[in-house]
Design brief:
The chain is α+β, with helices and mostly antiparallel strands and about 425 residues long. It has helices at about 5, 15-35, 50-70, 70-75, 80-100, 110-115, 125-140, 150-170, 385-405, and strands spanning about 175-185, 190, 200-215, 220-225, 240, 245-250, 250-265, 270, 280-285, 295-300, 310, 315-320, 325-335, 340-345, 350-355, 355-365, 375-380.
């Protein structure tokens, strides 16, 4: 039997066994508290109470370290044998978040009671997060004395990670995520939060113009009786109207005329550029088996025009599907209480930042499509984000410093690596 197995538990020096027990105990305690509270979604207090609680936490941590820095417990908390199991426990919760869809209604009573659909706002996550901050805080304080060049990289690395966890935990309640409906030529300064509550903003936004770039529409064949798309080998077949001819199922299609925006007069479509104009095409369809051919118009339809299909025979018809958006953007005029007056264009994955707010392109009136006079925006404000970025910057600086200077002499065997 090894010395590790012979050693009595909770006898110093503590090892990975005690570290694992502490982490598992925190997780179990967290899930018990979550179950006893009937799966309540925990919400931390906003400013200034979150800042006050953070300062109290720091004060208690520093005071405890100064008084008991020679105690074996502090040596354990500042070592890898406590940190590694804690990191694994934190990783376990993160993996749960990956396997269980978050921020949705729970599908089972177990998910609801244990809070599996909102893990970041449950007791297990908070307890592990606080435990990790204590471990990082202790190991960071240990490297302050003596503070020298050899310890600088290690300090920057761990203090940066501490800042990221600390600011993320405290700042979650201060994050504002709002949705705003902007109509053309109508200034808007009100938005709604996730609960639907109206929030007045220190800025006004006016939609000057909304633009959509669309892909060429697709065509497919549907069953006349069911209206369902015909499948070939259990897979629906589509073709994009981006070339003059192609094969679809047992048919050969030739595009005689394609109109990106059109309106119907009599039995014919003409190119027009007015609200509600829809894509249309005149096609010639040849049955490759029988050789018969038919020609006519198809149209995807819009909120003004009815879609039109080309009946191929008693069983099948050729239809055009609505064009899918390739890119959509909003030209905005933004005025702030600080006196700024800015015109800018935003699109998906290209937001605009102003006075602490980040404005994202979220959606539009899908019924109107390219003729939408509504742009749905998402406005996000996270006042703690600069602290998070600063922590990440410190971590990068510490990693670069360690890369240049090498490891500390003790090789990181006692402290968190």
């Amino acid at each position: 039997m090894s010395d590790e197995n012979k050693r009595k538990i909770w006898v110093h020096p503590w090892s990975y066994r005690e570290g694992t027990i502490a982490t598992v105990a925190l997780l179990v305690l967290g899930f018990i508290l979550q179950a006893l509270s009937s799966g309540i979604i925990l919400r931390s207090a906003g400013f200034p109470w979150n800042l006050i609680s953070g300062l109290i936490f720091l004060t208690l941590l520093i005071t405890a370290f100064v008084i008991w820095q020679k105690h074996p417990l502090m040596k354990f908390l500042g070592g890898v044998k406590a940190a590694l199991p804690a990191i694994l426990g934190f990783t376990f919760l993160v993996l749960l978040m990956g396997f269980v869809k978050q921020d949705v209604e729970p599908k089972s009573s177990v998910s609801r009671i244990l809070g599996l659909t909102h893990i970041v706002r449950t007791w297990p996550f908070i307890l592990i997060n606080v435990y990790l901050m204590i471990l990082l805080g202790v190991v960071t304080l240990k490297r302050l004395s003596p503070f020298n060049l050899k310890n600088a990289g290690f300090f920057l690395n761990h203090f940066g990670l501490f800042l990221v966890l600390f600011s993320t935990a405290l700042g979650s309640s201060d994050v504002q995520r709002l949705t705003m409906n902007c109509y053309e030529k109508q200034p808007e300064w009100r938005a709604a939060d996730i609960s639907g509550k109206t929030v007045e903003l220190p800025l006004a936004i006016q939609l000057l113009n909304f633009n959509i770039d669309e892909f060429k529409p697709k065509v497919t064949i549907v069953d006349n009786q069911t209206g369902q798309i015909v499948e070939l080998k259990k897979k629906a077949q589509y073709e994009v109207l981006d070339r003059n001819s192609f094969d679809l199922y047992n048919y050969h299609l030739e595009i005689e005329q394609f109109l990106e925006t059109s309106g119907k007069v009599g039995n014919t479509y003409f190119a027009v550029n007015e609200p509600g104009a829809a894509p249309s095409a005149k096609v010639k369809v040849t049955d490759k088996n029988g050789g018969s051919a038919i020609s006519g118009w198809i149209c995807s339809g819009s909120y003004v025009h009815q879609p039109e299909a080309l009946k191929l025979n008693e069983q099948y018809s050729l239809v055009m599907l609505p064009a899918e958006p390739k890119k959509f953007s909003s030209e905005l005029s933004i005025q702030t209480k600080s006196g700024k007056n800015i015109t800018t264009t935003i699109e998906v994955n290209r937001p605009f930042k102003i006075d602490g707010w980040t404005i994202y392109q979220l959606s539009y009136d899908t019924r109107l499509g390219r003729w939408s006079n509504l742009s749905v925006l998402e406005l996000v404000r996270d006042p703690w984000l600069p602290v998070v970025y600063f922590g990440i910057f410190l971590m990068m600086g510490g990693a670069a410093f360690l890369f240049i200077t090498g490891k500390p002499k003790n090789g990181g065997t006692e402290d968190v690596a």
